[in-house]
Amino acid sequence: MLSLSVDLSGFRRLRRETKRVMGIGTQRAVEVGLEAGADHARHDHPHKTRTGTLTSDAHLRGYVTERFPDGANGVLLNDAPYARFVEHGTRPHQIWPKEGHGFIGPLNPGQSRRALTDIGTHRIALRWYVGGRPVFARMVNHPGSMPYPFMEPAAAYAAEQIAFETEHVTFVLASELWS
């Protein structure tokens, strides 16, 4: 009878080390990819930058939400109050001046009340300037706005970067263990 004995302790050690390296590398890939996606949204967007709020670090960020041994989850987020209107556009709607805070009764669709701290004059008209001259209106029919997607392309870019970084981990770092 022939009996063979194979020592697999080296293989098991390499397998454990490979899983550890792959997990750390995948976590890093998610982190790097989300940061790259946020930078892409900040710099490669089709909309005009007026105030900088939409693309500021305070509102636009990519970060890891959860880490586990073999990877990570993350979020690419823009929490500016009007980000979704820029991303998806708006339908035609009416714009009304804010009603006074003491007003009791129904509001027009899309209308709101002023805050208690807003003690200015009781406005009954909208005002804007055309050619340096004021224009007044009781209500404006806004035609809606076009979408200027910048977060969706940034998410696609982040996914590409995560795939690239994961590929690097797989083929470079893990292969170094086995050579």
What does this structure look like?
By secondary structure, the chain is an alpha+beta fold. It folds into two domains: 10-88 and 146-178, no CATH class; 91-144, no CATH class. It has three helices and six strands. It has helices at residues 9-43, 83-88, 151-178; strands at residues 60-68, 71-78, 93-95, 126-130, 133-137, 140-142. The strands form three sheets. The chain has a two-stranded antiparallel sheet with strand order 1-2. Strands 3-6 form a two-stranded antiparallel ribbon. A two-stranded antiparallel sheet has the order 4-5. A hairpin with a 2-residue loop joins strand 1 and strand 2. Helix 1 (9-43) packs antiparallel against helix 3 (151-178). The longest helix is centred in the N-terminal third of the chain and has 35 residues, at 9-43. The protein is elongated, with a radius of gyration of 28 Å. The chain starts with 8 loop residues before the first helix and ends with a helix. The model has no long low-confidence stretch (mean pLDDT 88).
The main sheet orders its strands as 1-2
What helical percentage do the residues reach? 25-40%
**Distinct helical segment count:** 3
What is the subunit organization of this protein?
single chain
**Biggest sheet descriptor:** 2 strands, antiparallel
Low-confidence stretches: none
Strand runs, count: 6
How many discrete structural domains?
2
Radius of gyration: 28 Å
List keywords for this structure.
single chain; 179 residues; alpha+beta; 2 domains; two-stranded antiparallel ribbon; two-stranded antiparallel sheet; 3 helices
